[in-house]
Amino acid sequence: QVQLVESGGGLVQTGDSLRLSCAASGRTFSSYAMGWFRQALGAEREFVAAISWSGDNTYYADSVKGRFTISRDNAKNTVYLQMISLKPEDTAVYYCAAVIGTEFDSGTYYYPKDYDYWGQGTQVTVSS
Length: 128
Known about the structure:
By secondary structure, the protein is an all-beta fold. It contains no helices and 11 strands.
């Protein structure tokens, strides 16, 4: 009953910035925590960032900490991923995901299997 649609991906150069958006619709639950994951060609899907319903708790992968910022606007049913200082290693399909509830159980933000809904992904390509 929940649909997630990512947007904002594209082709950029090393050092550039992008802001990804994920719009949610059709939800029947009152609250949900959100996460961003990415999957490079030939690689496993990996955790990028996550945020609680209130926005008070955020989590980041070591590889993006200090460069990426996750935020949300619940009035717009949208979560964002602001990415700065992009590197070629950031090239991947980026997916947003939602899990029902206000907070994550211990460590559950990290694993794709713990999320209930997924978007279709948006491609981010960072050239040298």
